[in-house]
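Deliverable D4.2, example record:
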Amino acid sequence: MQWYEHPSLVLQLANLSKLRVDLREKNLFEGEGIRPDEPIHPLTPEAERARTPDGDWNDLSCPMMGARGTGFGRNVPIEQTIVDKKRLLTPDPREISRKLMARDTFKPAGIINALAAAWLQFENHNWFFHGNGVPGRNIEIPLQDGDDFPENPMRIRETIPMKGEIRDGCPAPVFANTESHWWDGSQVYGSGAEKQKYVRTFVDGKIKVDEKGRLHESEIPGIDITGFQENWWVGPGLLHTLFSREHNAVCDALKKADPSLTDQRLFELGVLVVSALIAKIHTVEWTTCILRHPALQIGMNANWYGALGETFRDRIGRVGDSEVLSGIIGSPTDHHAAPFSLTEEFVSVYRMHPLIPDDWSFYSLESGELLQEKTFTEIQGAATREVMDSMGMGDMWYSFGLASAGAVCLHNYPNALRSLHRLDGQITDLATLDIVRDRERGVPRYNDFREALRMPRRKRIEDITPNKQWAKEINEIYNGDVDAVDLQIGMQAEQPPKGFGFSDTAFRIFILMASRRLKSDRFFTKDFRPEVYTKTGYDWVNNNGMKDVLLRHYPELQPVIGDVERVFAPWPALGSPSPDKKHIIMRAADTVKAYMPFGS
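Output generated by the structure prediction step:
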């Protein structure tokens, strides 16, 4: 019996708690050579009191843990990360993209809006990036007859190991994260001292935002000056702008409370406060919107506030060190079975590109009239800045709030991302890339992945999904071999638990790593206190959420979202009443239908 199959909410919560303990003990592994022994910089007073540009010295006893340039860990035993070069292109990943993943019609998620889709990419840019590889070192994929991809063979740049090579039949080597592994707002501030210099004004702790409240345009066509500039489009552009403005607002409040604070100290505190606020929003707002199961509503809020709840925490404070009663935030730091790092499997389960629509409509916040219709291709890369300059920020926020994100399932991968024109001129099919990356990096295929997490193996492809048409198509691609089915295909074909925005297989990694990113970080645990954040900064984190941030910088959104409970759920259209309980229930029902495989 799986956790969600238990008859009562109490039993579901108990099983979730037990599941997380089990995963913490058995599914955290550190590969050889994951980090150098010497820190990047010596320990300084700044490193003791605040986050560093490289992410070193978060753990004062292990300074390079989680730092920029250190390797990804694993959630499956190292010996199960075997790279089989003979099967790297078997079955043909391009055929999988064309016949199983390509969007035929847009399948809406229903319970989450396009802002939630943009948010996830905004967060991914904080957490991980393997780099752009080395020019000339490519994986070549010959095209089959009838394939209209503009380049033959399709070329995907190899992932370069930290040391050595990818050897056939051996466990995968360690690959480095070019970002720090910590939840530190690096997408806004940049990882590394040079990137941080690029975004800073060096006046009152602030980062570069122009007099109109917009990010400065960079030397890269269409791209703004910010901490992470890869895979740029309007969605991340909105969020990078918002949290850059939020950083500057925090600095203003800190300086007002203590005019003696230096530029450096104001910047450090701004980073602490904004990165914690982003983590809070993701934990208690974004996650509870995409995972609507009642047990997860309680569980994710308990991650932050504890089982005693937000009101008790605000009025009484913590009750001892228990993360169960009083939440992870402010509890003792604990790395559990392995030193902290993000993992290759964590990267894999966050490949949720189907969330992104192909077609976009932009509306006037003032009148509700249609302003523009664009394809995704027209709002990304070099075109981003021109599109954002053509409308008001309120219009764009309103349009993202109205639009539904896509369901994470087969036949719903954005076709714009299956022929993505990058700034460097490379054309990429990201669906093909998603399949190849898992194989190249030794992430087990679907059945082996489930077994490593102590989930039941599927005996037949028909056991993966109740959708008979999908099962037939998967059988044809994989020649009936259930053990050959790739992780991405299995997860997107699965029937998610009721109210879930993604599969239970992906959720197993999520429940482990969502709390680990908080529990291992001293700035969320033992150092989340007024003495470190200042009283002003500490209160800012505790007293604000996503709606507060939006309305602080875009008060014109008040008529639309003033009464909205979930900012990451579809917003009401101008002139319509805010969603009441009946509308919320109807939307939840629509979402369950959206995730029900067709024909089941």
